[in-house]
Each structure stands twice: as structure tokens, then as C-alpha cells.
Amino acid sequence: MVQRMFQEEVASFHLQWMAFIPHDLATALDMEGVAIRAGHHCAQPLMRDLCVSSTARISFYIYNTMEEAEFFIEALQKVKEFFSQMALSKLDQLYRQVIFRPFEFSSS
Fold first, then answer.
1. Is the dihedral of CA 72, 39, 25, 51 positive or negative?
2. How far is the C-alpha of 37 from the C-alpha of 9, rounded, in Å?
3. Which of 51, 47, 54 has the alpha carbon at shortest distance from 20?
4. Residues whose CB is less than 8 angstroms from the CB of residue 51 and which lie 6 or more positions away in sequence, other chains included
5. What are phi and psi of 85, to 5 degrees?
6. Which residue of the set 1, 2, 8, 42 is catalytic?
7. CA-to-CA dists, residue 41 to 49, 81, 93, 100, angstroms
């Protein structure tokens, strides 16, 4: 008999730090070796009601191991660090453009 590891096969999660579209998350996780689904999942009316254009989801089933679940969590941490660094870099660039922009004087 197969022992069930999870009560639910689909895990839903919200990433407050994720300021990018779910397809970016899916691509980044794919680069770490984790496949997830991103899109509207044939649920456009629900997406409209939730005011989102797409979501990301990962599915577990009886054939997944605890090591695979832990690998996903580790990959998600790496992706979070990557996107956090990218966001900080963009903020830093914006700050430098606004604050350190040279004054322009017009000569008339």
C-alpha cells in the first residue's frame, strides 16, 4: 500500500514578494529544474473575479517524494533571492536616475 504524503494534491500559495507575472516564476523555477503551471488554467471567469490575469500552481501526487517537495522549496527560495536582487537593482537604477540626474541648464 502506498503511504500518502499530502492531504491535498494541489498546493496553492501567494508570494507577496512576487511582483512579476506567474510566467516569470515558472520560467525561473524551470531553470532550477522544477516544472510548474502558469496561466489561467481554463478558469478565466475565476481569474476575472479575482482580478488577476494568471496564476502559478504546483501539483503533487502519490508518486512525488518528500525530497522532491523539499527540492521545490529550495528552488523557490533561490528564485525569491533572484527576484529580490533584481527588484533592488531596478530600484537602485531608478534612484540614481532621479536623484543623481545632472542638472540641465538652458543657455538663452
1. negative
2. 14
3. 54
4. none
5. -65, -40
6. 42
7. 14, 27, 36, 45
Judge whether 42 counts as a catalytic residue: yes
- 9 with 59: CB under 8 angstroms? yes
37-39 vs 55-59, strand pairing mode: antiparallel
- pTM of this prediction? 0.67
Residue with cell 508518486: 63
Coil, strand, or helix at residue 68?
helix
pLDDT in tens, 2-39: 445 555 556 656 666 566 678 888 999 999 999 999 88
Rounded Cα–Cα distance for residues 57 and 71 (Å): 16
